[in-house]
Design a protein that fits this description.
about 325 residues; Rossmann fold; eight-stranded mixed sheet
Length: about 325
């Protein structure tokens, strides 16, 4: 189990106290903009403190939201704003990301992320919990199922890491080079170039937030692994898989093809035909509808289009 727990502020993943303050100020700004009733829950795990934002009726079924790389819990809550109408929502600040949890860098190759999430589930005293994750959050969820899926009822993965990877040269020129150029120059045009490749819709908050993260946070550029056929075949928890056709990082058609071969527990899968890696608000609404449909409670006011607009891929 490879991990590094930062007890010394000199070893912080934030490059400076001022940079950390800028990033967390934007975190708080986004949380305020959501205008929701919530509570913070702080959990101690063997990897350090984990911060959680909880919202929704405590008597409702529990769902944990897991954000993507370089993200935070308020972004996950904004992505799926209606789930709290039918769920008790726990939005987790993933450790070693630019948020309010511990700065503990874990290896993506071992079982550490799965162990961490199962510790969170145990500390929250949850059973039959639903998990929903985007991108890197999908990797964490799959690692959780690998480690111990006994308390998981169902999972929803949106453009997840850990199933396939895209063309490395394309990702280098379209994503990582613009990112590095911004980190060296601070010129906004390079952030814009990055976002144009990754985001389906322009997101003004993402521009501000990621501009600060790229400059002031030590990001993890470790290559993303993919799950082995053997581990995938052992997973029994029902999986709903949402892939994006124009995803440079984790190509949607390639993902669905491999997932259909290696996961015996795939319940539904679909391809968002007009989506890049980060989904549009409309597509996020459709993903919410998928989750509500499995709960058999679909609030009519959150259906932007007839539900049969979503056609799972076979």
């Amino acid at each position: 189990m490879a991990c590094r727990i930062n007890r010394n502020p000199m070893n912080s993943l934030f490059k400076s106290p001022e940079g950390k303050e800028e990033i967390l100020s934007l975190y708080n700004q986004k949380l305020d903009e959501l205008n929701i009733d919530f509570e913070y829950i702080s959990i101690e795990t063997s990897f350090g403190k984990t911060n959680i934002i909880a919202t929704g009726d405590p008597s409702n079924p529990p769902i944990i939201l897991v954000h993507g790389s370089n993200g935070c819990a308020p972004i996950a809550l904004e992505t799926y704003p209606n789930l709290s109408k039918s769920f008790r929502v726990f939005a987790v600040d993933v450790i070693a990301q630019p948020n309010k949890s511990a700065e503990t860098r874990l290896s993506m190759k071992g079982d550490a992320y799965g162990k961490w999430m199962n510790e969170v589930i145990d500390q929250l005293n949850l059973t039959d919990v639903w998990l929903a994750g985007f991108s890197f959050g999908g990797l964490i969820i799959l690692k959780t199922l690998e480690h111990d899926e006994s308390k998981i009822k169902e999972v929803f993965l949106s453009a997840p890491a850990y199933i396939v990877n895209g063309n490395p040269l394309r990702a280098l020129f379209k994503i990582f080079i613009p990112m590095r150029r911004y980190m060296r120059s601070g010129k906004p045009k390079f952030v814009e170039a990055f976002l144009n490749e990754v985001f389906t819709d322009r997101d003004e908050f993402a521009i501000k937030y990621l501009s600060e993260v790229f400059l002031h946070f030590k990001m993890d550029f470790t290559p993303v692994p993919v799950i082995s056929n053997e581990k995938a075949k052992l997973i029994k928890t029902p999986i709903t898989l949402i892939a994006a056709k124009d995803d440079v990082m984790f190509p949607g058609e390639k993902m669905l093809k491999r997932a259909a071969k290696i996961f015996p527990s795939i319940k539904k899968s679909l391809l968002l035909k007009n989506s890049k890696h980060v989904q549009s608000r409309e597509d996020n609404g459709l993903i919410e509808n998928l989750i509500f449909a499995e709960l058999k409670q679909v609030p009519q006011q959150v259906l932007p289009k007839p539900f049969d607009f979503i056609k799972p891929q076979k």
